[in-house]
């Protein structure tokens, strides 16, 4: 008898890129659900726009690079980038903004660097940063959470609002737009108001702020599930959250009139999304165990710095991008001790 | 036994054992085949030399190939018959190469040479026992086929306190050690005592995976009947690759074999359980290593089971005795699915190192993978039992930065395949690492060669300078003695001549430049020798000045 040969090992691999990417998208569901519940269905429309733009961008770039498009589209990495960007955008942002951000993320952030696995920067955050710098008004026009507005826009209303900039008759964009709690905090502190005064505002309640704390809970839930499935390295979220918490605690204890509580930091803005879904992007994160801890902690630290003293209300995107740059160096200096070498 | 403290090694993976089929069937004794084949090459390296010729009648247990080199144990005929040929035949080797083999046609009588055992081995010195083990042709039966006597000799220069018997069969499908421990527990335990005596070590740890209940029961029973205080049975978790020598040592003792070292450096010698039984048979019963237990399994074979088979039996014979191939038989693997290798044909003999014949059915094993780019997820690093960063090795190996890969400890990779198995991008990492190791070795050879040439050149240069200094010294001395009597014109003429000569030499060196560039790097022994040959006869200043001027080019 004759047999074909190949090289060992011969056991089929237990995982695949598409499965990982899909699982991460499933893990986004609780956070996404909280967003829809609090801010209406706009985010779903944004997800659709981003998915279509990402698929088109990916296919176009692959055909330009003369690579088959179907296998790459099936790895669902572009889809994940699209959704991560979409959930970071104001729910009623105009469609072209989302499309532009997504295309920028896929074309510049991913393919110009060589495509999947070769991009040094998190593509979704590249897209986000570009939008934030180019269209600041649109990017800061968030919506009031359901707890304040009493109702949230349904899918059809959100659709028309996003595509044709028209709202149901009783509403106007100006009346609808509202700064995020982090943004409010930043502006008001700049006006020399004390934290106590600011936090009597309607936006602030509970451990974080209305609406936002639920969204953060949602992403935390999904993130914990990913941890349990072993799909993300625990070091990154643990490093991120504990550094952010520790920094916030220190400054809160020193000057509670200016610095909000550590819990407020952990459950505001993009904290949980960043800690479990953005900073953990394998391609652009550190890959050694100790390196990941340092990487995560540095992001947490930077997020606090940017939020407290920087020019932007939230700092996740910029903190992640900055640490993306440092990841290879961190990896180099945190190589694990190999078996048989002195401790 | 359960109180024994176990340690952990980094990484590892849980694999589906696939051991039920072959493990549940009883151990069968394989039939005597019509033809026995013995490759002269037992491991990578030199062949041993045949001591029989075509036409010779041989008996079972008779040595048919020997070597003076202690690293090459002899080969014995595993039944009686006539040597038909000594010829090139395909070898059971990943390269698929052929090699010289002794082919014996059996006569069915199975007549053995007279074996004389030595039950009173306690009177023997360790050296005598080692010679015994060598002459019985015993090699490691776990798969590596390393000569056992050599491994035991490592204890002579180092203090060995622990003997580890490896019964942790961590690769899926393989159950031959399980079967051996179940049926021959006493031989294994007695073998352990002989090995202990020969090592002058105090304790033996016998490691068995905790998913081998039959073996455990048999061993416990045997230990209760005999006097085996020095042997301790330890259950280890069934995590791949616990059965790897370095990993098992870590699990049992918490010690790590130093990089580039051997277990004896930390007071440990590790042997496979089958090897221990073979040592018992050799020392006490006098029988050389002519048979072993081999697992024949997979969905491609009708009746998976363990066979006690003669070394040299064609694989096709063994498969036939297990009911033959099923209709879906697709691949033939020697060893396990993680570290074994595919062979293209069953027309190969069973050798001492083959522990499993895995006939895979349709889609039971994978072939070529369709890799995606590395997404740097680090799953490979989490799984690596050596704590390497396979993603970095892959990156550097692929971009041809072999030096960096070596710096990231490429050569500590044991090719266990854990990284391959967990990689979501389906990258054939181990394949890359094998290739990178090959490239690194080739590069090192190249470097050594040029280093060698450089050293020879430098020593020649130093010698020449010394000669020059000596010459100048003696010239000076002569001048001093002559100086008084020499007329000034003569001194001047000598100076002029010297100047001319120096100019000429300078020109020669300038002329020689382009040719020096064209000259290839010294690559072979001849290239190394040629400048040396020139220096052998201490030539005149002109003659030596040319190669001297070339020196920076050669460097
Ligand atoms: S497991 Fe595969 S994809 Fe992940 S880092 Fe390792 S080589 Fe890259
Ligand atoms: S094959 Fe090498 S790199 Fe991969 S897990 Fe095993 S030892 Fe580590």
Gist?
Chain B: Residues 363-394, 402-433 form the 4Fe-4S ferredoxin-type domain. The complex is a heterodimer of chains A (343) and B (555). Chain A is mostly helical.
Strand order of the largest sheet of chain A: 1-2
How much of the polypeptide of chain A forms β-strand, as a percent range?
Answer: under 5%
What name is given to the CATH topology of the domain at 19-31 and 118-334 in chain B? Rossmann fold
Strand content of chain B: 15-25%
Report the uncertain regions of chain A: none
Q: In angstroms, what separates the terminal alpha carbons of chain A? A: 51 Å
What's the alpha carbon Rg of chain A, rounded to whole Å?
21 Å
Q: Tally the structural domains of chain A.
A: 1
Oligomer state equals heterodimer
CATH superfamily of the domain at 19-31 and 118-334 in chain B: NADH-ubiquinone oxidoreductase 51kDa subunit
Overall average residue pLDDT of chain B: 87
Shape of chain B: globular
Q: How many H/I helices of chain B?
A: 17
**Main sheet specs of chain A:** 2 strands, antiparallel
Ligand set: iron/sulfur cluster
CATH architecture of the domain at 19-31 and 118-334 in chain B, by name, is 3-Layer(aba) Sandwich
Query: Could you give the count of β-strands of chain A?
Result: 2
Shape of chain A: globular
Q: Strands across the major sheet of chain B, in which order? A: 1-14-13-17-15-16
Please give the share of residues in helix of chain A.
Answer: 55-70%
Report on the biggest sheet of chain B.
Answer: 6 strands, mixed
Give an account of the 3D structure.
- The complex is a heterodimer of chains A (343) and B (555).
- With 343 residues, chain A is mainly alpha-helical.
- Chain A contains 19 helices and 2 strands.
- Chain A has helices spanning 17-27, 29-39, 42-64, 69-74, 77-88, 95-110, 123-134, 136-140, 146-149, 155-164, 173-176, 181-190, 195-198, 212-228, 235-254, 262-266, 271-278, 289-309, 316-333, and strands at residues 204-205, 208-209.
- A two-stranded antiparallel ribbon of chain A has the order 1-2.
- In chain A, strand 1 (204-205) and strand 2 form a beta hairpin.
- Chain A is globular.
- The termini of chain A are far apart.
- Helix content of chain B is 41%, strand content 15%.
- Chain B has a 6-stranded mixed sheet, with helices on both faces. Chain B has a 4-stranded antiparallel sheet with strand order 2-8-7-4, with no helix packed on it.
- The radius of gyration of chain B is 31 Å and the shape is globular.
- Mean pLDDT of chain B is 87; it is low at 509-555.
- At the A-B interface, helix 1 of A face strand 15, strand 16, helix 13 and helix 14 of B.
- The structure holds iron/sulfur cluster (2 copies).
- One iron/sulfur cluster is lined by residues 383-386, 388, 390, 413-419, 429-430, 433 of chain B.
